[in-house]
Model the fold of this input.
Amino acid sequence: KAGVTQTPRYLIKTRGQQVTLSCSPISGHRSVSWYQQTPGQGLQFLFEYFSETQRNKGNFPGRFSGRQFSNSRSEMNVSTLELGDSALYLCASSSGLAGARFTDTQYFGPGTRLTVL
Amino acid sequence: KQEVTQIPAALSVPEGENLVLNCSFTDSAIYNLQWFRQDPGKGLTSLLLIQSSQREQTSGRLNASLDKSSGRSTLYIAASQPGDSATYLCAVRSSGNTGKLIFGQGTTLQVKP
Done:
């Protein structure tokens, strides 16, 4: 089974631009979560999608948004980029099945390294 | 608010040594705890998942224990190898309707040949 894939792997943008990151979950998984990793703050939860619906959202400004498609692939978008948005963005997939939503293993992708200049 | 702490932040050991990594959390109301490994610049690799009803899980040279009442977990690595060098992260999934993982800051392990 193929793992979680994320594209692109690396991105360089300038302040004020916007960016879209993509995540394809493991086949059959319906839940996708996004995390931001920085040296100072560590790993922080951005949001979770299940069946095209956002189920949970972390404490990030509205410039961070996401969506999920019918094939469970997910995208996240960051508008009006700031220097502090430079980070490794990781997505994780899990089955999300009823009864296992909070107990199943989360599998992470390789991440997208975003650098904002 | 759930907080996860990992001590030490960094650890250096000679090859072949057995070692223990520590993880503590402030709220014992959790669904499970998961240990991950992260190589520099890479994503997270899931090592072990312990459900709240379990005491330990084993995979190869790795053994993870969970003491929910005291808010502690340990990851035991037997006969360490240079290839074990990485950052090890623990994460808890707190009870409640959020589903998010709350991570510790990690322990960076270096195993010297």
